[in-house]
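Deliverable D4.2, example record:
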Amino acid sequence: MKLTNITLHYVQMKLKNPFTNSFSTVKNRSFIIIEAITDDGMTGWGECVAFDQPWYTEETIQTCSHILKDVLIPTIIGQHIHHPDELSSFFSPVRRNPMAKSALEGAVWDLYAKQNGLSLSAALGGGRKQIEAGISIGLKKKDEELFAAIDTSLAQGYKRIKLKIKPGQDISLISKVRDRYPGIPIMADANSSYTLADMDRLRELDQYGLMMIEQPLAYNDLYEHALLQKELKTKICLDESIQSAHDALQAIRFGSCRVINLKIGRVGGLSESLKILKLCEDEGIDVWCGGMLETGISRAHTIALASMSAVNLPGDISSTQNYWHQDITAPEVTVSKGCINVPDKPGIGFELNRDALEAFTVRKEHFHA
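Output generated by the structure prediction step:
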C-alpha cells in the first residue's frame, strides 16, 4: 500500500459521567483521529488516546500532534508499506512517543486488514468470536454512588469490576465493597498513588481476595514493584510501567508483576502488543486489555487484540453507552451476558459515522504525498 493522504481530525467529546482516579477527574475528552488513504482510495482509521495533561504518561494531545505532523507523517507518507510491522523501522529514529506512533500504526493495520479481506482480529491472529468484558469504575464521593455503579455493572453482566483507589480511599472502600459483594471478581487500580512507605497498608488488601492491584507504585518503576510483590499475596498488575516488550521482559525477570495490563497506545501499537503477548504466553503471565476512555475506533482495535488467546482475563472494554451519548462509530459496542462480539468484517469492523465525526471535530490538518 502507498499512503497518499492523511488527515488529522482533532476531536472533543463530553463524557456522559465524569471519571475520577487518584490524579484527575476527566469530564471532556480530546482525541486525534487519523484518517489514512491509500493510492487506490482505501481508508484506514487510527486514534491517538493521549490526554490533555501528562498525568498518565508524559505524552499529551499537544505533544502527539507535534510528533505526528512534524515527524511521523512526513516519514511514511508516499512510502510503499507491505505490512504494518515495517513502521517500527520507519519510526526507529524517534525515541518513545508511543501514543503518537500507535495512532498512525493503527490506521495502517486497519488498511492492511481491509486490503487482505480480513477482520483486524484475523489479521492479528486472533481466534475468539467473543471476548469477556470487565468494567472500570472511578472514585465516587458517596458509597451509595459506588454501589449503584457496581449494581448496574453486575446487571449488565460484566465479568469483573475494577475499582479506583488512592490513599484515604482504599481499605475502607474495598472492605465495604467486599462485605456487600462477597463473591464477585474485584481488582483495585492505584494509578501510582502509593510508595513503599505504604507497605503495611498495601498488605492489608491481601485479606479481601482481590484479583490484583494495578500499578500501586511509581509510573516508571520496576524495582520497587518487585520488592512489593514479594511481600504481597495479591498479584501486582503493571500498567504505566510497561511501555514496550523490553519493559515487559524486565518486569517478568525482576518479578515485578504477575499480570500485565496491555494498552495498545501506551506500548506504541499493535505490532509491539503482539510481541508482549507472545512473551507473556511463553512466561505464564496473565494479560488483559485496558481502556483509555476512547472512541469506537480505538475500542475496535482493542477488541481485536483481546481476541488473541494469550489475553486470558476480562479487560476494560465496556459498552459505548457507559461513556458517550453519541460515538463516532457504528454500530455501538454492546455487552451481552458479559461478552462482546468480535467483528468479522474487513478491518476494524465498524463504520465511521461521518456526521458525528464532523460534529465533534474542532479542526483538521491535511497531508498529501
